[in-house]
Amino acid sequence: MATTNPLQFIQQVRAEVSKIVWPTRREVLLTTVMVFIMAALTAVFFALVDILIRSGLQGILALFG
Q1: For the segment 37-47, what is each residue's pLDDT rounded down to a tens digit?
Q2: What is the pLDDT averaged over residues 24-51?
Q3: Are 31 and 23 a contacting pair, CB within 8 Å?
Q4: In the chain, what are the domain boundaries?
């Protein structure tokens, strides 16, 4: 493995960091809102599935209990 002197390393790091494309404030805001919406929809979905499974099991147990 070749060794790089510290000055070259810093120059390479700065060159790579300059290639980064940072999101705009609007993109970050929209992405954040979408994450909250998807999390809420997922929570509602799993709550409904939980209610259906619970009521189904309670119905089955009522038949045998």
Answers
A1: 999 999 999 99
A2: 98
A3: yes
A4: 23-64
Query: In this structure, are residues 16 and 8 in contact, taking their beta carbons and an 8 Å threshold?
Result: no
Closest C-alpha among 55, 51, 32 to residue 43: 51
Q: What's the pLDDT score for residue 52? A: 98
**How far is residue 40's CA from residue 27's CA, in Å, rounded to a whole number?**
20
pLDDT above 90: residue 65? no
Asked if 12 and 4 count as a contact pair (C-beta separation under 8 A), the reply is yes
- Residue 64 CA, distance from chain mean position: 43
C-alpha triplet 31, 40, 50: angle, nearest 5°:
145
Q: Which one has a higher pLDDT value, 44 or 65?
A: 44
Q: Is 1 helix (H, G, I), strand (E, B) or coil?
A: coil
